[in-house]
Amino acid sequence: MARRKKVYEGKAKILYEGPEPGTLIQYFKDDSAPTPATPAPAAVEGKGVLNNRLSEFFMTGLNGIGVPTHFIRRLNMREQMVRMAEIIPLEVVVRNFAAGELSAKLGIPEGTALPRPIVEYYYKDDRLGTPMVSEEHIIAFNWASQQDLDDIVALALRVNDFLSGVMLGVGIRLADFRIEVGRIWEGDYMRLIVADEISPDSCRLWDMRTASEAMEREGIVREPGPLADPYTELARRLGVLPSNVTHTTKPTLIN
Asked: Quick one: pLDDT band at residue 217, thresholds 50, 70, 90?
């Protein structure tokens, strides 16, 4: 078999040239993305298999409700075929509850329900620490147009509605998550799609079973309980867990 050409390698995935024009093969590694607590990526056995299945589940669901994504089909336990897209150099973060950097900077107790979902932008550059940027930065530096930003917000909020509902159905609170957005062209027409992946690596997930009814009524989870093993537990609750894949780790949290 001919050796595949690697296009890109990141912390958790490798992209190879696809078998068809305009496609890529996305391979999920077992490496964990670094966090402030664990700056060096660590290999976690089975994580890539689970993230491949989970991302397939979420992307297929989004495609099914009319939210366009780059996902075409899963090829095997670790690989999926995706559409090639021009990635906008932004991480788009949607927050439903205060946590992480938002709590630290604004003094809002972690677990506080936000009055509405908040959409934030972070410039994708690991050398700079992926800094938070404003719409003015994005437009001034021509990373995206105002129309792009309007479409990104609409896309992100639709993803949030879908993911929040799915998670709620299996007893999990979606505190926040991040997505990447890409541009694709169909003739002269350009549209934005959800790219990269949707998995515990890009979400902050809390187990609702740890919250009391009183806390729920107040809209505050005073002691948010993260899933002990977000990959295995989420896959189990959603019914997409392959057999004989178990491990214990923590999710990559959004700062």
From this structure: low
Do residues 27 and 11 lie in contact, with contact meaning Cβ atoms separated by under 8 Å? no
Question: By three-state DSSP, how is residue 19 classified?
Answer: coil
Q: Is 55 helix (H, G, I), strand (E, B) or coil?
A: helix
Q: How big is the chain, counted in residues?
A: 255
- Cβ 94 vs Cβ 155: under 8 Å: no
With a threshold of 0.70, does the pTM exceed it?
A: yes
Q: Quickly tell me which residue has 């999990």 as its tokens.
A: 172
CB 119 within 8 A of CB 161: no
Query: How many contiguous H segments (helices) and E segments (strands) does the chain have?
Result: 6, 12
Residue that wins the pLDDT comparison between 32 and 76: 76
- Helix or strand or coil: residue 80? strand
Taking alpha carbons only, the member of 173, 148, 142 closest to residue 160 is: 173
200 in Cβ contact with 231 (< 8 Å): yes
Residue 78 is classified by DSSP as S
Taking only the tens place, the pLDDT of each residue in 185-203 is 988 899 999 999 999 999 9
Q: Which residues contact 122 (CB under 8 A, 6 or more apart)?
A: 90, 91, 93, 130, 131, 132, 133, 178
